[in-house]
Design goal:
The chain has 240 residues and is of the alpha/beta class. It has one domain: Decaprenyl diphosphate synthase-like (Undecaprenyl pyrophosphate synthetase, 3-Layer(aba) Sandwich), CATH 3.40.1180.10. It contains nine helices and six strands. Strand 3, helix 5 and strand 4 form a beta-alpha-beta unit. The longest helix is centred in the first third of the chain and has 22 residues. The radius of gyration is 19 Å and the shape is globular. The model has no long low-confidence stretch (mean pLDDT 93).
Length: 240
């Protein structure tokens, strides 16, 4: 069983996968959805309790209306017809981000899956949909400013813990590992606060081709890394 609790993934490369095969972009997302299911089941087998998947970023709203419409249609179809695996495997589904711009039907489908799986605790799969880390931190600051204004808290009360408690991920542990597929080497406005001490791993593999075997190898590699949290390396080793 892996000692890691939380793995976050930027599932990149669906479009390039589709382009290489001469098929529509939405086919890449369908294949990517299948990959996400396999990785969630692998995480469960490895004892990794939390998996957070970057599904649709706040910046994705800048893409073409056709691409956005296809993505929304595909995600809606998946949530409506193909979520039995969550019930069968006792996977808790969660959705974080700003969902206000999505159609009411999609918002309802996300809420319904969250409600149906709310009591499962084997593995928590969080989908970051309409998510942007800077936007998340900004809303956190607004919430804290409101509490200061109402004299619920004082400015001097604001610390790292209080900020963390106002984020979308307030009830999740910080990620131990952040993986990005497709060869891009940046984290693209994803979990900026939460990933402060995460191990970063970048792979050339396009997300639809990302296998459970590669996921397992990455986790094993990251487990061998020593996380110092600002300490001297020997001190960190002794503390561990």
């Amino acid at each position: 069983m892996s000692p890691l609790k939380h793995v976050a993934i930027i599932m990149d490369g669906n479009g390039r996968w589709a382009k290489k095969r001469g098929v529509g972009t939405i086919e890449g997302h369908k294949k990517g959805g299948e990959t996400a299911e396999r990785i969630a089941l692998t995480a469960k087998k490895m004892g990794i309790k939390y998996l957070t998947l970057y599904t649709f970023s706040a910046e994705n709203w800048r893409r073409s209306p056709l691409w956005i419409a296809e993505f929304i249609r595909e995600l809606s179809y998946y949530l409506e017809h193909q979520t039995d695996i969550f019930m069968q495997e006792h996977i808790r589904a969660r959705f974080i981000g700003d969902h206000s711009r999505f159609p009411q039907k999609l918002q309802r489908l996300m809420r319904e899956l969250e409600e149906k799986t709310a009591y499962f605790d084997d593995v928590h799969v969080t989908f970051a949909v309409g998510y942007g880390a800077r936007q998340e931190i900004a809303q956190s600051m607004r919430a804290l400013a409101k509490r200061v204004g109402s004299e619920e808290i004082k400015i001097s009360d604001i610390n790292e813990q209080l900020i963390s408690e106002t984020l979308y991920t307030h009830d999740l542990p910080d990620p131990d590992v952040l993986i990005r597929t497709s060869g891009e080497m940046r984290i693209s406005n994803y979990l900026l606060w939460q990933a402060a001490y995460a191990e970063l791993y970048f792979t050339e593999t396009l997300w639809p081709d990302f296998s459970p075997e590669e996921f397992t190898k990455i986790i094993e590699t990251c487990c061998q890394r020593q996380r110092c949290y600002g300490q001297d390396r020997q001190d960190a080793a002794n503390a561990a």
